[in-house]
Amino acid sequence: MPRNPSTGVYSKPAGTTPSVGQVIDPVPWNALTTDLGNEITNSLPRDGSAPMVAPLKAASGTVSAPGVGFASNPQTGMYLKGGGLLGFTQNGVDVSFDQAMIYAAKSGDYTALASDNNAVHRFTAAAIVTLTAAATLGANWHYTVIADGADVTIDPNGAETVDGAATLIVPNGYSAFLICSGSAFFSNKLMTKILSKADSSAVGSFVDGLTLSNNTGSPNTHIDFAAGSARSGSSFVSSAASFTKRVNGTWAVGSGNGGLDAGSVAANATYFAYALRKDSDLSFDVVLSTSATIGGVTTTLLTGFSLVKQIGVVLTDTSSLLRQFVMYPHDFYQWVTPIREATNVAISTTSALLAISVPNGAKVEAKIRLMFSSSATTNSALVHDPAKGVLIAGGNDSGGSVGTMQVASGFAVGGGDVWTNTSRQVRYVAGAAGSIWVWNDGFYFPCGRIA
User: How far from 293 is each of 232, 237, 288, 310, 377, CA to CA, in Å?
Assistant: First the structure.
């Protein structure tokens, strides 16, 4: 064949270029006409009447001059990119087409490779997805992770980041789309927006539900929290089911586990309950602390969690056991058994402080009942908020909470709601010498309105 199969160049057979007057040798001329007929047969008709019978080998071309173009628009067509990739150009501008989507289910840890470009992997169990180096995957490499059974952690190579962080956790029930820049990874932020919607859509401060009660099975050590939600500013968390924490153990994630932020349970102690939110999936938990403010909570054990709001309080007795109570609406805690705080305590015109069994470190409104006796036939006793200073008991002064009947050494009863100071104290005074008994039925603790 005179046509070079590699270059396509046609060369006439030898002896087919005659001179004037030369007798033509039929052998080379017959070979020439045979070759011409074969080459015409092997040529592609311009009218498209015959198809190709072998692969068409086009020029590599460029984005502005594609190897396969059109007569009316030579800058639109196909060309060969670097690395053997097929490129498409329209009016000299590159047009990208994605490769076929690849779906696969995974049940354990996996390393995402360059061949996983445009893959969708559904993880049915807890897993760590390790990403190959960004430089290896290259710019525009993209990948979708679906967490359908447990949380999935996406871990970039070495010191590389995803959305600027060392890892990205895809909570169970969510998905994340990743794209590589060639040096780092970024998600489409959709998951983040969905998870933070409660934070971004409203602000305020409240506790809805989440009422406290002694656990039925272990009332001396375990506290139950009813379903509910809490918000402080723009931070929000909710629990769709009841939740339990125990006071005789340091904090560990999950219902039924220890709740103390530090140390061990103490006698006659106050433990404030704070709602927690897990940073990765916004799930609910609770921590117990002796701190009356959120800023004083020890957070050493709370890695990966954020403090949201104070939601309640519990007290222990002299044996370090939880006091039994019933919590009513409007943050009222009623002791199952009234606590007798004072028995036949001397009272006089000299004002004094009395510590009672209410939360320490916060002002609360105690519900108390009183009994009073005095040898004076006309006398009264006054129990009041220490913030009022030193008051004088008596009808012509600040009045009384309870007074004697007009019989010397008789008994009178009374009671009321009295605010304490932050040291659990109320102040008492009488118009004349006598004795007083004090019972504590419970207290109001409006944690829904403090930080």
Answer: 13, 18, 11, 8, 47
